Every structure is written in C-alpha cells, then in structure tokens.
C-alpha cells in the first residue's frame, strides 16, 4: 500500500512539474490581453489640404470562453471630419465586433494603417484555409478571411513594445487552444 501511495505521489509531482513550465496559463494570458485594452484609447490623425480627419479607437472589450476557445472582441471607432475651407463637419461612431474560435486562427501578423508619421498598429488574425470568420459591424454580419484589430498608435513603421507583448500573448493563447502552426516552407 505504501508503494502504491508513493508511486501516486511521484506521478502527481511529475504532472505538476510538467504543467508548470514557467509559461502563462490560459487564464493569465486572457487577463493580460484584457488588461492591455482596459481604458486603452488612441487616435489616428490625417491632414490633407484644408481637411482634417481623426479616427478614435476606444472601448475595446475582450471576452473568452475557456471551454470552447471562442473569443469575442469588440471596439468603438469614432470618425471626425472637418474641412475648414468648405465649413464641412462630420462625426460618426461605428461599432465592430468579431466572434471567432482561436483554433481557427492560423497566424497573427502586424500591419499598419495611416500615412505620413501617424500610424495605427493593426493585428491581422488570419484564419486557416477554407475557414470563414464572422465580423459584425454597422452594415451587419459578414464573412471574412481575416480579422483586423487596431491595437496601438506609432509614429514609425515599428511596433511598440506593448504591441509586441500583446502579439506574443495572442499567439501564446492561440497555441494553448490547440491552433495549428502557420504553414511555412522556410
């Protein structure tokens, strides 16, 4: 009986050591992602001639179902347009929502939007081949092959340190959920 208990304790210890490899758990990773977006807001400004445009990104909410690996990301974008010469102004608010299973995401890339010296860092969540992802915005629901998520502002075509950490967190969570490795022939 003592030998059986000893063997069980050794096995339990081995499983515990393997589970604690120093990498964050799903729960810790999701909390990191949520904390990044908490109270996060940033603008993209563009001036052309007499017109000035601003896109304000804010109120990003991240939800994650630990049982199904389904992630919901929604954010608000406020668009302002002002043409000083023609006395034209416009202000609109758009809400975008993505619902997707992280297992269906093959890779996540950086990209940038903007011009001049004012850029948004945007993550592209690219689905596995033949998998359609869902986007919900002011025009309704549509099928997309990739999801774009503005995450930060930069003044160069280099990611910020915070955006780099966030990308690593999303990729780590994707792997924890069992998503496939990106296809590469390198």
In short:
The protein is of the alpha+beta class. It has helices spanning 2-19, 26-37, 161-176; strands at residues 42-48, 51-65, 70-83, 88-101, 105-115, 118-127, 133-137, 140-144, 146-154. The chain contains 3 helices and 9 strands.
Mean pLDDT equals 83
Strand content: over 45%
Q: Which overall shape is indicated by the principal axes computed on the Cα atoms?
A: globular
Give the topology string: H per helix, E per strand.
Answer: HHEEEEEEEEEH
Q: Whole-Å distance between the termini?
A: 54 Å
Class computed from helices, strands and strand pairing: alpha+beta
Strand arrangement, major sheet: 1-2-3-4-7-8
In DSSP terms, counting alpha (H) and pi (I) runs of 4 or more, how many helices? Answer: 3
Which residues sit in consecutive blocks of at least 5 with pLDDT less than 50?
Answer: 4-9, 11-19
Q: Could you give the count of β-strands?
A: 9
Please give the structural blueprint.
Layout: H1 2-19, H2 26-37, E1 42-48, E2 51-65, E3 70-83, E4 88-101, E5 105-115, E6 118-127, E7 133-137, E8 140-144, E9 146-154, H3 161-176
Antiparallel strand pairs: 1-2, 2-3, 3-4, 4-7, 5-6, 6-9, 7-8
Helix pairs in contact: 2-3
């Amino acid at each position: 009986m003592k030998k059986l208990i000893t063997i069980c304790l050794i096995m339990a210890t081995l499983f515990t050591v393997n589970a604690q490899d120093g990498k964050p758990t799903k729960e810790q990773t999701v909390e990191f992602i949520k904390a990044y977006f908490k109270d996060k807001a940033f603008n993209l400004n563009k001036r052309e001639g007499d017109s000035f445009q601003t896109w304000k990104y804010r109120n990003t909410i991240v939800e994650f179902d630990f049982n199904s690996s389904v992630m919901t990301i929604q954010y608000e974008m406020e668009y302002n347009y002002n043409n000083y010469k023609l006395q034209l102004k416009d202000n609109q608010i758009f809400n975008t929502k993505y619902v997707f299973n992280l297992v269906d995401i093959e890779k996540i890339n950086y990209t940038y939007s903007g011009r001049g010296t004012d850029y948004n860092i945007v993550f592209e969540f690219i689905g596995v081949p033949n998998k359609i992802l869902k986007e919900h915005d002011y025009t309704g629901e549509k099928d997309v092959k990739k999801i774009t998520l503005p995450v930060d502002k930069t003044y160069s075509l280099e990611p910020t340190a915070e955006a780099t950490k966030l990308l690593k967190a999303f990729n780590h969570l994707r792997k924890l959920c069992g998503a496939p490795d990106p296809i590469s022939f390198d």
